[in-house]
Amino acid sequence: MAILIDSDTKVICQGFTGKQASYHMERAIAYGTKVVGGVVPGKGGRRHLGLPVFDSVAEAVAATGANASAVFVPPASAGDALIEAIDAGLPLVVCVTERIPVLDMVRVKRRLEGSATRLIGPNSQGILSPGRCKIGVMPAHLERPGKVGIASRSASLTSEVIEQISAQRLGQSTSIGIGGDPVHGVGFVDCLELFFQDPGTDCVVLLGEIGGSDEEEAAAYLKANKARKPVVAYVAGLHAPTERRMGHAGTVNVFGQGGAAEKIEALRSAGVSVATSAAEIGQTVRQALRAA
């Protein structure tokens, strides 16, 4: 089992003919993802990677029956592209674009309210269900099918943990990069709810970092709602300096808020097994499953 995607998911790509989109969508197709077309305004009627190109998302959905989109549109236009996908009623939108203007994302968040769309990202490595579907830029050579669900704010750490869990012969049900930008779609709480409902997931891993409030929100959710499955977490940035941006836009610890130590304490107080080192995450998952 998996969450949000499966082998029948039909994917279009917004920004389809761009260099990065072409590279990653070609690999998604090779992986077995059902990519059914792309959207580039002004290029409708052409073909790219052997698939049709449309002028709008609405046209693409009507012609292909697509139910998911991968967004590779540059930052200045990405907000409008996301709103177009939401207005077209796509159930799932995955945005890999980084550094979309915050005010544009505020507009997107407002448009998401009451809509049928779940947004993953922006600044997301994507979503991957081993052997079923891959949307985004997540590497697809380390995974193996299994029953560990992963939700992460860090792309590189996701790859490391997927490899560790595969080495433990546990495998993954679905891996989701929720995105590192400060304003984003699906968060840790959404992922916990989805994984808890998924019969194919036996354990959930949260990979957090400094900045933002996803970890604290997850802790509050777990305190109010008893975890139905073991939850393991790791929070990067324990020794990061205050008030300095570390990496992408969401990883900044301002005036003592959003620090790793506070996030770790909140998660532990909610009953989460927190790994003390990135190298120990796979083993911590194994131990949590044994104790369940």
UniProtKB/TrEMBL annotation:
Which keywords label this protein? Answer: Ligase, Nucleotide-binding, Tricarboxylic acid cycle
- Assembly description: Heterotetramer of two alpha and two beta subunits.
Give GO BP annotations, semicolon-separated.
tricarboxylic acid cycle
UniProt-annotated binding residues for CoA: T17, G18, K19, Q20, K43, V96, T97, E98
Q: In which pathway does it act?
A: Carbohydrate metabolism; tricarboxylic acid cycle; succinate from succinyl-CoA (ligase route): step 1/1
Q: Which function does this protein serve?
A: Succinyl-CoA synthetase functions in the citric acid cycle (TCA), coupling the hydrolysis of succinyl-CoA to the synthesis of either ATP or GTP and thus represents the only step of substrate-level phosphorylation in the TCA. The alpha subunit of the enzyme binds the substrates coenzyme A and phosphate, while succinate binding and nucleotide specificity is provided by the beta subunit.
Q: Specify whether Ion transport is a keyword of the entry.
A: no
Name the chemical reaction catalysed here: succinate + ATP + CoA = succinyl-CoA + ADP + phosphate; GTP + succinate + CoA = succinyl-CoA + GDP + phosphate
Active site feature = H248 (tele-phosphohistidine intermediate)
Annotated GO CC locations: succinate-CoA ligase complex (ADP-forming)
Indicate yes or no for the key word Ligase.
Answer: yes
Q: What class of enzyme is it?
A: ligase
Its recorded name reads Succinate--CoA ligase [ADP-forming] subunit alpha
Classify the source by domain of life. Answer: Bacteria
* Source organism of the structure: Pelagibius litoralis
Domain CoA-binding, residue spans = 4-100
Q: What family name appears in the similarity comment?
A: Belongs to the succinate/malate CoA ligase alpha subunit family.
SMART domains, sorted: CoA_binding
EC number(s) recorded for this UniProt protein: 6.2.1.5
What positions belong to coiled-coil segments? none
